[in-house]
Amino acid sequence: MGIKILLNGAGRIGKSILKQLLVDKKFEIVAINDINPSIENIVYSINYDSTYGKIDDKFKVIEDNFIKNKSSKIKITHYKDISQLYLDGIDILIDCSGQKVDILKLRALNVKKIILTHPEKDADINLILGANEDKYDRKNHKIISTSSCNATALLPALKLIDNKKKIICGDIVTIHPLLNHQRVLDGSFVQSATRDVDLNFEFGRSSTQNIIPSHTTTIKACSYSIEKFNSDLISSNSLRVPTDTVGAINVTLFTKEPSIKSEIVNIFLEFEKNQNYPIVLNNFEALVSSDFKKERYTTIIDHRFLEVKNSMIKLLLWYDNEWGYASKVVEILKYIDLKKVS
Ligand SMILES: NC(=O)c1ccc[n+]([C@@H]2O[C@H](COP(=O)([O-])OP(=O)(O)OC[C@H]3O[C@@H](n4cnc5c(N)ncnc54)[C@H](O)[C@@H]3O)[C@@H](O)[C@H]2O)c1
C-alpha cells in the first residue's frame, strides 16, 4: 500500500503532481479537494490538457463522489476551508490551491506532513533540492514548503557559484509564462495571496497580447531557504510572456573572486555528473523554450549564453515551471521518507 495523499487544489500544479504520482507505486492519491463544484469538469480537466496532452488511462465519475480509472480510485470533495477536510487515513496533505494558509490551522491538522507548493516564511522549512535539503529535520518538520518554481531553478545555481567564488551582488530577470490568475483579455486588476500580488494593474491586462513587467518574489523565496540570498544581495524583476509553460532566468552575478569561463562551465558539468536528483542539466544545443517542456531537470544551464568577464558571471537558466516544478515536489515527497517518520 502506498503513502496516502490528499491533494488540495487540482489546477496547473495539482494536476501535474497527480499525473506524476499516478505512475509511482510508492504513493496513492486517495482524495482531491477543489472548490470547482463540478466533479465532471474536474475529471475532464485531468483527462484532457492543452499543455501536456490527454492521458491514456482516463478517469470516469462513479458513485458517491468518486472518480476512477484502471489504477486509481479517488474521492472528490469541494471544501473551501482546509480545516474542514476529511483526513482520516491520510498521511500527507499537498496544498496546491494557491490560497493563503493559516499556519496554526495547518499545524492542528491530523496528518504526518503538509506540503505547500508556494514559498511560506512560517513553514517549518522551505525545501529546495540542491540547496538546503540537509536542513530537513525528519522528526520536527511537519509543514514543508516546496518554494516556488523560480527559486527551485535559481537557488542551486547561486549556491554552486557562491561556494566557489562568493557572490557579492547580482541581478535576475525571470521570463515567466502566463498563469491562471492573469486575464485573457484586458480586465480588472489581479490579486494573489500566495504570490504577494496586491492590486496588480498590469496583470489585469491581456496576458496573450503583452509582455508584462512585474516584481517577482523569487529572491524573497530564495531567502526563506538560504537566508544570505536575499534582496540586499540580489535585485530582481520579471517579464510575463504569452507562452503556456517553461520559464527562463537571466542571471548576472558579481563575485569576490574573478573567474574564467571554463571554471564556471566545470562547476555545472561536475554537479550534473554527481547529483542525486534531476537538478542541473547542461545544454549546448540550439534549443527554444518548448524543447524544455516536460523536462524534470529544473536548473538547465544554457551554455550558449554563459559569459564571464573578470568578476561578472552571466547565466541563462531554463525550467518547466509546471511539470518540472511538480517533479521536484514528487522528489521531495520521496526525500522526506515518511517510513522513517513514525
Ligand atoms: N503554475 C506555476 O507555474 C506554479 C509553479 C510553482 C508553484 N505554483 C504555486 O502552486 C499554487 C497553485 O498554482 P496553479 O498555477 O496550479 O493555480 P491554478 O489556479 O491553476 O489552480 C488552483 C486550483 O485550486 C483550486 N482552489 C482555489 N481555492 C481553493 C480552496 N480554497 N480550496 C481548494 N481548492 C481551491 C482552484 O479551483 C484551482 O483548481 C500557487 O500557490 C502557486 O504559487 C505555481
From TrEMBL:
<dbReference type="InterPro" id="IPR020831">
    <property type="entry name" value="GlycerAld/Erythrose_P_DH"/>
</dbReference>
<dbReference type="GO" id="GO:0051287">
    <property type="term" value="F:NAD binding"/>
</dbReference>
<feature type="binding site">
    <location>
        <begin position="12"/>
        <end position="13"/>
    </location>
    <ligand>
        <name>NAD(+)</name>
    </ligand>
</feature>
<keyword id="KW-0547">Nucleotide-binding</keyword>
<dbReference type="Pfam" id="PF02800">
    <property type="entry name" value="Gp_dh_C"/>
</dbReference>
<feature type="active site" description="Nucleophile">
    <location>
        <position position="149"/>
    </location>
</feature>
<dbReference type="InterPro" id="IPR020828">
    <property type="entry name" value="GlycerAld_3-P_DH_NAD(P)-bd"/>
</dbReference>
<feature type="binding site">
    <location>
        <position position="34"/>
    </location>
    <ligand>
        <name>NAD(+)</name>
    </ligand>
</feature>
<keyword id="KW-0520">NAD</keyword>
<keyword id="KW-0560">Oxidoreductase</keyword>
<protein>
    <submittedName>
        <fullName>Glyceraldehyde-3-phosphate dehydrogenase</fullName>
    </submittedName>
</protein>
<dbReference type="GO" id="GO:0016620">
    <property type="term" value="F:oxidoreductase activity, acting on the aldehyde or oxo group of donors, NAD or NADP as acceptor"/>
</dbReference>
<feature type="binding site">
    <location>
        <position position="321"/>
    </location>
    <ligand>
        <name>NAD(+)</name>
    </ligand>
</feature>
<feature type="binding site">
    <location>
        <position position="117"/>
    </location>
    <ligand>
        <name>NAD(+)</name>
    </ligand>
</feature>
<dbReference type="Pfam" id="PF00044">
    <property type="entry name" value="Gp_dh_N"/>
</dbReference>
<feature type="site" description="Activates thiol group during catalysis">
    <location>
        <position position="176"/>
    </location>
</feature>
<feature type="domain" description="Glyceraldehyde 3-phosphate dehydrogenase NAD(P) binding">
    <location>
        <begin position="3"/>
        <end position="149"/>
    </location>
</feature>
<dbReference type="InterPro" id="IPR020829">
    <property type="entry name" value="GlycerAld_3-P_DH_cat"/>
</dbReference>
<dbReference type="InterPro" id="IPR036291">
    <property type="entry name" value="NAD(P)-bd_dom_sf"/>
</dbReference>
